[in-house]
Amino acid sequence: MSPWLVLCSAVFGAAAAAFVPRVAHRLAVPRGTPARAACARCDTPFTDWVRAGAACPCAGAPVWTVIAGALAAGLLGAAIGPAPLLLVVLPATVLGVLLAVIDIRCLRLPDRVVAALAGVTVPPLAVAALLAGEPGRLGRAAVAAGLSAAAYGIIALLPGHGLGLGDVKLATVLGFVLGFAGWPATAAGLLAPHLINGPVALALLASRRAGRRTALPFGPALLAGALLGLSI
Length: 232
Description:
By secondary structure, this protein is mostly helical. 70% of the residues lie in helices and 0% in strands. The chain has nine helices and no strands. It has helices at residues 3-17, 20-27, 63-80, 84-106, 111-131, 135-157, 165-181, 183-206, 219-231. It is globular and about 55 Å long. The mean pLDDT is 90.
Protein backbone atom coordinates (compact mmCIF):
# COMPACT_ATOMS: atom_id res chain seq x y z
CA MET A 1 0.00 0.00 0.00
CA SER A 2 1.40 3.38 -1.03
CA PRO A 3 0.63 6.17 1.46
CA TRP A 4 0.92 8.70 -1.36
CA LEU A 5 -1.62 6.84 -3.46
CA VAL A 6 -4.03 6.68 -0.52
CA LEU A 7 -3.52 10.37 0.17
CA CYS A 8 -4.03 11.36 -3.45
CA SER A 9 -7.15 9.21 -3.66
CA ALA A 10 -8.57 10.76 -0.49
CA VAL A 11 -7.82 14.29 -1.69
CA PHE A 12 -9.51 13.55 -5.01
CA GLY A 13 -12.56 12.13 -3.24
CA ALA A 14 -12.83 15.11 -0.90
CA ALA A 15 -12.37 17.70 -3.65
CA ALA A 16 -14.84 16.07 -6.03
CA ALA A 17 -17.42 15.47 -3.28
CA ALA A 18 -17.37 19.20 -2.51
CA PHE A 19 -19.36 19.66 -5.74
CA VAL A 20 -22.07 17.19 -4.69
CA PRO A 21 -24.34 19.40 -2.49
CA ARG A 22 -25.59 21.72 -5.27
CA VAL A 23 -26.36 18.85 -7.65
CA ALA A 24 -27.96 16.76 -4.89
CA HIS A 25 -30.14 19.66 -3.75
CA ARG A 26 -31.40 20.21 -7.28
CA LEU A 27 -32.08 16.52 -7.98
CA ALA A 28 -33.54 15.53 -4.60
CA VAL A 29 -37.16 15.95 -5.69
CA PRO A 30 -40.11 13.53 -5.96
CA ARG A 31 -40.31 11.32 -9.02
CA GLY A 32 -41.72 13.12 -12.03
CA THR A 33 -40.83 16.55 -10.61
CA PRO A 34 -38.38 18.78 -12.52
CA ALA A 35 -35.05 19.55 -10.91
CA ARG A 36 -35.15 22.47 -8.51
CA ALA A 37 -34.61 25.85 -10.10
CA ALA A 38 -34.27 27.58 -6.72
CA CYS A 39 -33.20 26.78 -3.18
CA ALA A 40 -35.86 24.94 -1.19
CA ARG A 41 -34.98 26.96 1.92
CA CYS A 42 -34.62 30.56 0.78
CA ASP A 43 -35.88 30.52 -2.85
CA THR A 44 -32.58 31.83 -4.20
CA PRO A 45 -32.55 30.98 -7.94
CA PHE A 46 -29.96 28.48 -9.14
CA THR A 47 -28.06 29.69 -12.18
CA ASP A 48 -25.73 26.70 -12.50
CA TRP A 49 -25.22 23.08 -11.56
CA VAL A 50 -21.51 23.01 -10.81
CA ARG A 51 -20.56 24.76 -7.61
CA ALA A 52 -18.15 23.73 -4.89
CA GLY A 53 -19.24 24.15 -1.31
CA ALA A 54 -22.70 24.54 0.13
CA ALA A 55 -25.72 24.02 -2.11
CA CYS A 56 -26.78 27.59 -1.36
CA PRO A 57 -25.32 30.43 0.74
CA CYS A 58 -28.10 29.78 3.27
CA ALA A 59 -26.89 26.20 3.84
CA GLY A 60 -23.98 24.95 5.88
CA ALA A 61 -20.64 23.76 4.53
CA PRO A 62 -20.67 20.25 2.97
CA VAL A 63 -18.58 18.74 5.74
CA TRP A 64 -20.15 15.27 5.79
CA THR A 65 -20.18 15.01 2.00
CA VAL A 66 -16.48 15.86 1.80
CA ILE A 67 -15.63 13.44 4.62
CA ALA A 68 -17.60 10.63 2.94
CA GLY A 69 -15.86 11.23 -0.38
CA ALA A 70 -12.42 11.31 1.23
CA LEU A 71 -12.95 8.16 3.29
CA ALA A 72 -14.44 6.14 0.44
CA ALA A 73 -11.78 7.16 -2.09
CA GLY A 74 -8.95 6.71 0.40
CA LEU A 75 -10.18 3.25 1.35
CA LEU A 76 -10.34 2.22 -2.31
CA GLY A 77 -6.87 3.61 -2.92
CA ALA A 78 -5.52 1.53 -0.05
CA ALA A 79 -7.35 -1.65 -1.06
CA ILE A 80 -6.95 -1.61 -4.84
CA GLY A 81 -3.59 0.06 -5.25
CA PRO A 82 -2.13 1.23 -8.58
CA ALA A 83 -4.44 -0.76 -10.84
CA PRO A 84 -6.72 0.25 -13.74
CA LEU A 85 -9.74 -0.55 -11.57
CA LEU A 86 -8.84 2.34 -9.25
CA LEU A 87 -8.97 4.84 -12.12
CA VAL A 88 -12.54 3.71 -12.77
CA VAL A 89 -13.90 3.50 -9.24
CA LEU A 90 -12.59 6.87 -8.03
CA PRO A 91 -14.92 8.93 -10.28
CA ALA A 92 -17.65 6.39 -9.56
CA THR A 93 -17.20 7.07 -5.84
CA VAL A 94 -18.27 10.67 -6.30
CA LEU A 95 -21.42 9.60 -8.15
CA GLY A 96 -22.04 7.12 -5.35
CA VAL A 97 -21.91 9.89 -2.75
CA LEU A 98 -24.34 11.90 -4.88
CA LEU A 99 -26.76 8.97 -5.16
CA ALA A 100 -26.58 8.31 -1.42
CA VAL A 101 -27.39 11.93 -0.56
CA ILE A 102 -30.33 12.05 -2.96
CA ASP A 103 -31.74 8.73 -1.76
CA ILE A 104 -31.53 9.77 1.89
CA ARG A 105 -33.35 13.00 1.14
CA CYS A 106 -36.15 11.82 -1.14
CA LEU A 107 -36.02 7.99 -1.34
CA ARG A 108 -35.15 8.08 -5.01
CA LEU A 109 -32.22 7.10 -7.22
CA PRO A 110 -32.49 9.23 -10.38
CA ASP A 111 -32.08 7.23 -13.58
CA ARG A 112 -29.76 9.84 -15.06
CA VAL A 113 -27.29 9.52 -12.19
CA VAL A 114 -27.42 5.71 -12.19
CA ALA A 115 -26.89 5.83 -15.96
CA ALA A 116 -23.91 8.13 -15.44
CA LEU A 117 -22.49 5.63 -12.93
CA ALA A 118 -22.91 2.86 -15.49
CA GLY A 119 -21.26 5.04 -18.13
CA VAL A 120 -18.11 5.70 -16.10
CA THR A 121 -17.70 2.08 -14.99
CA VAL A 122 -19.00 -0.48 -17.47
CA PRO A 123 -17.36 0.65 -20.77
CA PRO A 124 -13.93 1.43 -19.23
CA LEU A 125 -13.83 -1.89 -17.36
CA ALA A 126 -14.91 -3.77 -20.48
CA VAL A 127 -12.15 -2.11 -22.52
CA ALA A 128 -9.59 -2.75 -19.77
CA ALA A 129 -10.47 -6.45 -19.67
CA LEU A 130 -10.22 -6.82 -23.44
CA LEU A 131 -6.94 -4.89 -23.67
CA ALA A 132 -5.48 -7.04 -20.90
CA GLY A 133 -6.53 -10.19 -22.75
CA GLU A 134 -8.95 -11.21 -19.96
CA PRO A 135 -12.32 -11.77 -21.66
CA GLY A 136 -13.21 -14.16 -18.85
CA ARG A 137 -13.07 -11.28 -16.41
CA LEU A 138 -15.54 -9.36 -18.54
CA GLY A 139 -17.79 -12.41 -18.71
CA ARG A 140 -17.68 -12.78 -14.93
CA ALA A 141 -18.65 -9.12 -14.52
CA ALA A 142 -21.59 -9.56 -16.89
CA VAL A 143 -22.76 -12.69 -15.04
CA ALA A 144 -22.46 -10.90 -11.69
CA ALA A 145 -24.50 -7.99 -13.04
CA GLY A 146 -27.17 -10.40 -14.26
CA LEU A 147 -27.30 -12.21 -10.93
CA SER A 148 -27.57 -8.92 -9.08
CA ALA A 149 -30.39 -7.75 -11.35
CA ALA A 150 -32.26 -11.04 -10.94
CA ALA A 151 -31.83 -11.24 -7.15
CA TYR A 152 -32.85 -7.66 -6.43
CA GLY A 153 -35.57 -7.77 -9.08
CA ILE A 154 -37.16 -10.73 -7.28
CA ILE A 155 -36.88 -8.94 -3.92
CA ALA A 156 -38.48 -5.83 -5.42
CA LEU A 157 -41.48 -7.90 -6.52
CA LEU A 158 -42.10 -9.32 -3.05
CA PRO A 159 -44.88 -7.74 -0.94
CA GLY A 160 -43.52 -5.25 1.57
CA HIS A 161 -40.08 -5.42 -0.06
CA GLY A 162 -39.17 -1.75 0.39
CA LEU A 163 -37.05 -1.78 -2.78
CA GLY A 164 -37.65 0.22 -5.92
CA LEU A 165 -36.54 -0.14 -9.51
CA GLY A 166 -33.81 2.40 -8.82
CA ASP A 167 -32.32 0.01 -6.27
CA VAL A 168 -32.44 -2.82 -8.81
CA LYS A 169 -30.71 -0.72 -11.48
CA LEU A 170 -28.04 0.45 -9.05
CA ALA A 171 -27.46 -3.13 -7.84
CA THR A 172 -26.99 -4.23 -11.45
CA VAL A 173 -24.30 -1.61 -12.12
CA LEU A 174 -22.54 -2.34 -8.83
CA GLY A 175 -22.75 -6.06 -9.57
CA PHE A 176 -20.79 -5.53 -12.78
CA VAL A 177 -18.04 -3.63 -10.96
CA LEU A 178 -17.90 -6.21 -8.16
CA GLY A 179 -17.85 -9.05 -10.68
CA PHE A 180 -14.89 -7.44 -12.40
CA ALA A 181 -13.07 -7.46 -9.05
CA GLY A 182 -13.90 -11.13 -8.37
CA TRP A 183 -16.48 -13.49 -6.89
CA PRO A 184 -15.46 -12.84 -3.24
CA ALA A 185 -16.01 -9.12 -3.82
CA THR A 186 -19.36 -9.86 -5.46
CA ALA A 187 -20.56 -12.06 -2.60
CA ALA A 188 -19.49 -9.56 0.05
CA GLY A 189 -20.89 -6.61 -1.88
CA LEU A 190 -24.30 -8.21 -2.29
CA LEU A 191 -24.58 -9.53 1.28
CA ALA A 192 -23.27 -6.48 3.14
CA PRO A 193 -26.16 -4.10 2.26
CA HIS A 194 -28.62 -6.30 4.14
CA LEU A 195 -26.31 -6.55 7.13
CA ILE A 196 -26.00 -2.76 7.08
CA ASN A 197 -29.65 -1.79 6.58
CA GLY A 198 -31.00 -4.34 9.06
CA PRO A 199 -29.37 -2.87 12.18
CA VAL A 200 -30.14 0.66 10.95
CA ALA A 201 -33.83 -0.19 10.62
CA LEU A 202 -33.89 -1.81 14.08
CA ALA A 203 -32.19 1.25 15.59
CA LEU A 204 -34.74 3.57 14.01
CA LEU A 205 -37.60 1.39 15.23
CA ALA A 206 -36.19 1.24 18.73
CA SER A 207 -35.77 5.02 18.86
CA ARG A 208 -39.27 5.47 17.37
CA ARG A 209 -37.86 7.54 14.55
CA ALA A 210 -39.44 5.12 12.09
CA GLY A 211 -42.38 2.71 12.06
CA ARG A 212 -42.84 -0.74 10.58
CA ARG A 213 -44.14 0.74 7.33
CA THR A 214 -41.66 3.60 7.09
CA ALA A 215 -39.76 3.52 3.81
CA LEU A 216 -36.00 3.59 4.24
CA PRO A 217 -33.37 4.38 1.60
CA PHE A 218 -31.50 1.28 0.45
CA GLY A 219 -29.16 2.96 -2.01
CA PRO A 220 -26.62 4.04 0.63
CA ALA A 221 -26.42 0.46 1.94
CA LEU A 222 -25.90 -0.86 -1.60
CA LEU A 223 -23.10 1.62 -2.17
CA ALA A 224 -21.48 0.93 1.21
CA GLY A 225 -21.70 -2.81 0.53
CA ALA A 226 -19.97 -2.36 -2.83
CA LEU A 227 -17.27 -0.30 -1.14
CA LEU A 228 -16.69 -3.07 1.39
CA GLY A 229 -16.69 -5.70 -1.34
CA LEU A 230 -14.05 -3.85 -3.33
CA SER A 231 -11.97 -3.36 -0.19
CA ILE A 232 -11.62 -6.97 0.87
